[in-house]
Structures are given as structure tokens and as C-alpha cells.
Amino acid sequence: IGDNQVHTRTAALKILVDTQTENTNELLLAAMDDKNAEYRAAALKFALPSVTPATSALWITKLGKASPELKVQLVQMLGKARSKEALPKITKLLKSKDQDLRLAAIDAVSAIGQEQSLDDLYKVMKKGDTTTIQAVSSAILRMKGNGIPDKVASYIPKSKPAVKIALINILASKAANAQIGSLYDLLNAKDPAVKTAAYAALEKTATKNDIPKLFSLLASQSDPQELQALQNAAIAAYQGTDHTDSDVDALFAQMSSASADKKVWYYKILASLGGTKALDAVTAAYYASEPNKKWAIDALASWHDSGSTATLLKISRENKNPEQLNAALLGYLNLIRKDTYTPEQRLLKLREAMAVASTTEQKQTILKDLGQVKIFNALVFAGKYLDDPALQGSAANAVMSIAMADNTYSGTLVKDLLTKTMAALKGGDSSYEKEAIRKYLAEMPADPGFTPLFNGRDLTGWKGLVGDPIKRSKMDAKTLAAEQVKADAEMRDSWKVVNGELHFMAHGNNLATIKKYGDFEMLVDWKIIDDKQQKGDAGIYLRGTPQVQIWDNARVKEGAQVGSGGLYNNKINESKPLKVADNKLDEWNTFRILMKGDRVTVYLNGELVTDNVILENFWDKDRPIFAEEQIELQAHGSPVAYRDIYIREIPRVEPYQLSAAEKKAGFKVLFDGTNMHSWTGNTTDYVIENGNIAIRPKPGKGSGGNLFTKDEYSDFIFRFEFQLTPGANNGLGIRAPFEGDAAYEGMELQILDNDAPIYKDLHVYQYHGSIYGTIPAKRGYLKPVGEWNYEEVIVKGPKIKVVLNGTAILDADITSARKNGAADKLPHPGLSRSTGHIGFLGHGSPVQFRNIRIKDLSTKAGASGK
């Protein structure tokens, strides 16, 4: 095979090596005489697994007779093979004048000899050139061995400066704290480069135990670079340890004895410890004197957490020195980047920065950060700068970055922003970016998306509050109009637009939308203005009903410590938020409110605080929440401000209505697809989805529980539709109490995917439609999984009939079971009950129900709880 076919030759050699059991080494050794370096390298790779103490001699012999180029290859191979037999021969090559061979020998000796080779390597390093010193340094860093740092430190005193620096760096890389004394000895070295290296190495080697020594050095040194190195070392020494109050106290004690010019070097060290005490000290230092300001800002900007962001923002607002303002603002932005804020909270912080930014460069930096905040509010805020010639490029990039990350945006507002963005994009990639935006616009959903509820200029779209929904519904048109005129006059006195914000002036009544809303998603920024009275209290009425709560958390007597965002006026369903997520008074907050059907979900500053909770009708507890009504901003006697109010209407299902025949027959709707007012129990896992009641058990959280009618029923006709998932298991409880297992304390009519393999061995009285454990139903009448089934249950005294998809699958009389016991031989006291609740009984499976109605057949007026 010719030389120009090296890959074919290599493949052939590999086959020979893999198939021959004898003469393999001879074959590979012979390959060393080949003129092609690539072929030789492949042969050495094949030889590597076969290098043993017994075969090493062959390769060592070959090494002695090899050309310089081959020697390099053989040394590299023997080093990889960790051939101890070859170590003496290779060690001699450390003195080779051929640089490539010497470097190969350094790597091989370090790999084979490890810590035991240090002395030999140091001898080469001691007299070597820059390349050799670097090669030995790298080799030592790859070595393993507890004794390496001690030996490295012992070499330093007898080394030339270049080698000393390399050895110092090795100690630093290995974080050799036990050898830090050697570094201290070099802090006064005559060679400046050695001295600098020793100072720099302290940062990697110092621990908390070295703090006193570092502070002593800090007090005695004067060179700024050396002071900086000592400061860095002290900061590093505290890292990875639990900081205690005693650490801060010790630092304060050290500072108190330091001269004025040295105190400033402690500020960053305080920043590394963090905590209120340290923050107060650095803040006080900033305000103490002009010379301190630069140092204090630098420390605040390096704070180990976000604790100093508020201080830096305050400084940015107050400071008139451009350099200091810039340092404070950039430090503030840097801390925001480092923290794990929610996108909503990050946006609020960036908006505060933009409010104090004074230069184009600062604003461009903020817009660049804004582009990483992928929420609608950020899109709109960035879009406000598209008309500023100096900022429109940065704003366009931010808008594009936010929009392209979410393909659900829609509506005129977003279209206008993206159209402006295309016009503002410049540069080499702008044609591709514009094409991406065009594609985005072409594929944009057709719905209106978010639209503003407040235009930032006046009260267009709003009106004063007149009564409550029920009172308004009882007014004739003339009376309502007259009352509205009075309410609007009061509104104009109580609500003012101030710098694009909507302010309540602490007197007057609620502000209401002219339009009524059903299902929607609402975004709104709000803040309680601190009037020093601790009376901060407000809220947002949904469909004219109180309310998503807003208040001053300091009002502990009123229970405000639980935080804002809860459904304050709920009496049965959850009213308190899941967590406290409020910002401080005078700081902006963001609500994201979702209302679907009678359920409300609230995010406060990006944190979930109300999770799909039923909002009760405050005005009439016997009625569900209104299907449509106005949204109101509550007036509660304390100043509050709102801004950036947007709403996205969510299409809602048409409420289910009874047929004319069912109305005439006396049926009543129990679930119309819009609310669960007639139901109680587990309204957390049983939710409304697309007009259906859906049971969505949470993984690992049990069966999903039961959902019952609020009323009790004795004799009735119950009609509903249900949709199963594969293997689904649920049940219809009848005449059941709230407490206990409804299958036994009441009766359970099975709702089950009969055809699932997991149910092949059930008892006959456990299949769909059966009275559980008691009387079996006919099988074979369920529709395929995923299709809707229609079922009617007729209960009259001891007679129970189940009709599935038009076929009676159960027509039973439980008189015998009441007397003689159930078929499963277990106690079923519920068989003897004459009244109770109807419910869906969760067994851990996703199932959906819809179009639920009932006709009460009871002759007693009180039997159904009406």
C-alpha cells in the first residue's frame, strides 16, 4: 500500500494488531521505522495498551536508537503509558538541548513520577528558559500529591526571580494555605515582580485564620496596589465561611484603630460580609464626608447580595457628581444582574434606574438589560424609547429580543411597536432581523391582545362608582344616569393624573371602568404612597366585587402582615395570599391578575400569591360571582398610585342552558361552565377548563379529593356528561355526607374506564355504573376514551337507575342490600341514608364533566336544602 494511502495502511495495521496474538510488539516496533509521522503516531496509539513492565524494555531500546522526531513520539507514548521502567531513561532527556524533546520529557516525567519527580523537574526549571519554566509549572499543577506544596515552597528561596514567580503561582493555584508563610516572607522581596506575585497569591491562599495578619499588613502598607491585594485577600478569606456578628464587630474594631486613609480599604471587606450592620456602616461613611463617597460607592456596588441596591439607587438620585452618579448607577445595575429577581421585579428595578439615568450611555445600558426581561410590561416600557433618536436603536433591540422570545403576543399595541422597531433597526444584520419581525407579524394571533385601560393622560374609559352591581341593577335608566353624573364629578376631584400615573388623592370613592369585563388577564403597577399614617389600604374589584387586596404590611392589627394579593373578602374560600411578596411603601409593585369563570389567580411581583381561588359574591352570598361587571380601583382613604394598566379579554364559553323541555320539567343547572357556586369541597384540584369541571390531581398529592353539591338531595334525576382519560377512575357519590368515605358512608356509582388493562380483574360490582361493592351494572356502553359520554341517574327511594348513552345499564333496588348487606361483605351504612350530597369522587385520575343539571324529586321542601 503506497505512502499516500496512510489511512488505509493505518486501518490494515489496526486489523493486524487486533487479530494477532503473537509478534504484535515486533509489528508495532517495526512501524517506528516508517517515514510517515502520522502512521507512526497511529502505531504508538495502538501500542499504548500493550506497554507493560515486560514489554517496556523493547520500547526503551527503540528510544535509544530513534531519531529526534521519533524520540519525541516515543517519550509521549511512554508517558501516557505511565511506564516506570522508562522513567530513568526519560529523566535524562530533561537536559536535552532539543526543545521539543525536553518539553515532551517534562510532561512524561511528571506523569510517570508524579510527586517523586519534583526534584528532577525543579532542576530543569531552575536553569530553564521561559518556555521550560512554563512547561514545568503546568506539569506540576497536573500532579497529585499532598507533599507538593511543601516542596514547591522549599524551592522558592534558592530560585531566580522568574522561577520564584512561577512557584508562587503554583502555590496560589493549589490554594496552599499551609505555605502562606512563604508568601508573607516574599512581600518585602527586592524584585518588584516577585513582590507583586506574592501579594496577588494571598487572595488564593488566605483563609479566615489569616485575617489578623492581613489586617496587620493593611495597617502597615502604603502602596495602593499592595493595599488592593490585601483587601482582595481579606475578602477571599471570608468567602465560603459563615459570617457572624462577631466577624463584623472584629472588623469594626480594626477599622476604629485604623488611620483615616486606611479606613476606606475596609469598606469592600464589609461589603463581602453583608448584613444590615455592615450596610449601615458603609452608608454612614458615604454621607460622612466627600472623600469617603467614591470608596463607599465602590463598596456598595460590590455588595455580596442585593442588600445595597436601594442605597445605590438613593445615591444615584441624590448625587450631583457625574462620576459618582455613574458609578452608583452601574453598581446598582450590576447587583440587579447578579440577583435572582423575577422578571417583574427586575423590570421594576430597571425602571427605577431609568428614572435617574442622566446620560445616553447609561440609558442604552439599561435598555440592553431590559431586553433580557421577557415579559409584556418590559416590551411596552422599552417601546417608549423608540421615538428617541439617541435611544431608538437600543430600544428596538430590546423590543425585538422580548417579542421574539414569546410567540403569543398579539394586538394593535404590539404590532405598532414591532413596526416601529423595524424602522429603527440598523446595521449588517438588520435585514435578517426585519425579516424575522415580518414573519412574526404574519403569524401573530388575530385576537386584540392587551389593550390599555389607562392612557397616562386623562380618565378616558373610567367613571365614578355608583353603588354596587345589585343596587345599580335595580335603578331605572334616569336614576342611574343622574347618580353617574354625581359620581363622575366626585371622581374628577378624587383621582388625578400625575406625571403619567393615576393617583388617588386619599378622599372620595372608587374609580370604575366604563366597560364591563368577563374573563380577562390584567396587568397593573401600583404603589402605596407613604403618608406616615400607616393606613395604606386599597384594592382592585373584579367584576364589581371586592377584592384583590392592597395594603401596608405594617398594619398588623388588621392582619396586613400576610401581604397583598389575597381575596380579602372571601369567607369560605381562601382569602389570604400564599406568601408576602410586597415591595416597600413608596415602591412600585406589579399585579398580574387572571380571572376565568369564578376563579382568580394573582401574581405579585412575579410571585404566585393567589392560586385559582373562587371569588365569592360579596354582595349576595347566595349568588355566584357576576358573569360580567366593571373593574374598580378601590378608594380607601389613603393615597395610592397606579400606572401601566393593561387588560386582555379572554374568550369565554357560553353558559350552558337548559332545554325548553328540561325547564318545563323543573330541572336546575348545577354547573353551567362558568362557575362552581353550587359546589363545595376540593375546589383546588377540581377546576374549570373550557367550560368543563376538570379534576387535575397533583402528582404525589393523593386522589384529588371530592367535589360535592352544597345542597343535599334525596330523590332526584341527575344528568351530566363526562370524558375519561386512559385508565381513569372517578365516582358519582349520592346521598353522601361530607365526612368519611362516600363509597361506604353514602353510595358511589362508578365512573371508570372499563377497558383499561389494569381493571381486567375487578369484581363485577366495581365496573362503570355499578353501585360500588353492591350491585353490578351492564358493561359495554361506554364511548371510546376521549369522547364525551352522557349519563342520567334516577334515584327514588330504594330504586336507583343509571342510563349511559341512552342505555339503562343499572336498574336496581337496594332494599335487599339494606337488609342483607352488600355483595362485597363490607359495611355500607350509606345504603340506609335517605338524603345527602351528590359529588364527584376523585381517585387520582384526570376526568372532565360538563352540562350538569338536576331535578329534585323530593316531596319535602327542605330535603334539597332550598
Mind explaining what this structure looks like?
The structure is a single chain. This protein is α+β, with helices and mostly antiparallel strands. Helix 13 packs parallel to helix 15 (about 225-240). The chain is extended. It starts with 5 loop residues before the first helix and ends in a 10-residue tail after the last strand. Residues about 860-865 have low confidence and may be disordered.
* Average predicted confidence as pLDDT: 93
What Rg, in angstroms, do the CA atoms define?
40 Å
Class by helix and strand content? alpha+beta
> Which residue ranges are poorly predicted, with pLDDT under 50 across at least 5 consecutive positions?
861-866
Number of strands: 26
Q: Looking at the structure, what is the overall shape?
A: extended
- Main sheet characteristics: 8 strands, antiparallel
Per DSSP, the total helix count is: 33
Percent range of helical residues: 40-55%
DSSP strand content: 15-25%
Give the N-terminus to C-terminus distance in angstroms: 100 Å
Highlighted features:
alpha+beta; extended; disordered C terminus; 866 residues; 8-stranded antiparallel sheet
Task: Outline the fold blueprint.
Blueprint: H1 6-19, H2 24-31, H3 37-47, H4 56-65, H5 68-80, H6 87-92, H7 99-113, H8 118-127, H9 130-142, H10 148-155, H11 161-173, H12 180-185, H13 192-205, H14 211-220, H15 224-238, H16 245-257, H17 260-263, H18 267-273, H19 276-288, H20 290-301, H21 309-318, H22 322-338, H23 343-356, H24 360-370, H25 376-383, H26 392-404, H27 412-424, H28 430-443, E1 451-452, E2 462-464, H29 469-474, H30 477-494, E3 495-498, E4 501-504, E5 511-517, E6 520-528, E7 537-542, E8 545-551, E9 589-596, E10 599-604, E11 607-614, E12 629-633, E13 640-649, H31 660-665, E14 668-671, E15 679-681, E16 686-689, E17 692-695, E18 706-713, E19 716-724, E20 729-736, H32 742-745, E21 747-752, E22 788-796, E23 799-804, E24 807-813, H33 815-820, E25 836-841, E26 847-856
Antiparallel strand pairs: 1-13, 2-5, 3-4, 4-13, 5-12, 6-9, 6-13, 7-8, 7-12, 9-10, 10-11, 14-26, 15-18, 16-17, 17-26, 18-25, 19-22, 19-26, 20-21, 20-25, 22-23, 23-24
